[in-house]
Amino acid sequence: MPKIMKTLTIAGSDSSGGAGIQADLKTFEEYGTYGFSALTTIVTMDPDNGWHHNVYPVDSALVAEQLKTIFAGGPVDAMKTGMLGSVDIVRVAEQAIKSNQQKNVVIDPVMVCKGEDEVLNPESAEAIRDLLLPLATVVTPNLFEAGVLSGLGKLTSVEDMKEAARKIHGLGAQNVVVKGGKALGGDRAIDVFFDGKDFTVLETDKIEPAYNHGAGCTFAAAITGGLANGLSVADAVAKAKDFVSAAIRSGYQFNEYVGPVFHGGYRLNR
């Protein structure tokens, strides 16, 4: 029997199943890895109030206990973070990575829920920037998050994305993927990958209808799965782009507010 590769997500719960821990574990399974999870927040959405998001952080001590359980078996082959919810939880994640000498760390710097446009917790965003980016093998901000982390504000072009990637790399991340997705103008879904020396522009046709709830979490989890399976960072990012595009293409309309990606799309359409 081949070795089972282990993957970890430190992230929040999305009750609708498209994003967060649910998306990560589904993606890890699609990559043939054994997924662990440490729950940081519980997010609910209110269909009687325009799908407004309510975010409930887990006590940081409980997050630390979950991670103690997980790392009792030693470091995992790759891990990611998602929604962390508080500065204390960011510090718990930092300590777990450092004390276990964890390699292959993917930081998805979640700052907003889809459909929302304000940073959930500005202090947490600063803690992610200062404490986790220096530990990141790969960081995967969307346009909004890249604008916040880089200090450049609103990004509207590929050149803006490249400049943001340079600045974020300067904060300590080894590799940066700035996700343009459907938010960038034009008919192409564009992401920019920067390894500290060279840029790679990853492009696909935009998919309509865009059932893309959970696309960001899924993309980062796919990179994590690729790294766990021994892919180089560049190859893991390229495969993750294909994986999430297939998941969007196979997504469906959940209700009037949201349509999630379908995480089995890549496998079922090969």
Topology of this structure?
Elements: E1 6-14, H1 20-30, E2 34-46, E3 52-57, H2 60-70, E4 78-81, H3 87-99, E5 105-107, H4 122-132, E6 138-139, H5 143-150, H6 158-170, E7 176-181, E8 188-194, E9 199-205, H7 215-228, H8 233-249, H9 265-268
Parallel strand pairs: 1-2, 1-4, 4-5, 5-6
Antiparallel strand pairs: 2-3, 7-8, 8-9
Helix pairs in contact: 1-7, 2-3, 3-4, 5-6, 7-8
GO molecular function, one term: hydroxymethylpyrimidine kinase activity
Domain Pyridoxamine kinase/Phosphomethylpyrimidine kinase: 14-261
Keywords: ATP-binding, Kinase, Magnesium, Metal-binding, Nucleotide-binding, Transferase
Envelope shape? globular
- Averaging pLDDT over every residue, what do you get? 94
Strand order of the largest sheet: 3-2-1-4-5-6
CATH topology description: UDP-N-acetylmuramoyl-L-alanine:D-glutamate ligase
Spatial extent as radius of gyration: 17 Å
How helix-rich are the residues, as a percent range?
25-40%
Uncertain residue ranges: none
Largest sheet: 6 strands, mixed
Alpha-beta content class: alpha/beta
CATH second-level architecture: 3-Layer(aba) Sandwich
> Mind telling me the CATH superfamily name?
Ribokinase
Distance between the termini: 24 Å
- The count of helical stretches stands at 9
**Structural domain count:** 1
User: What is the CATH C level class, in words?
Assistant: Alpha Beta
Succession of helices and strands: EHEEHEHEHEHHEEEHHH
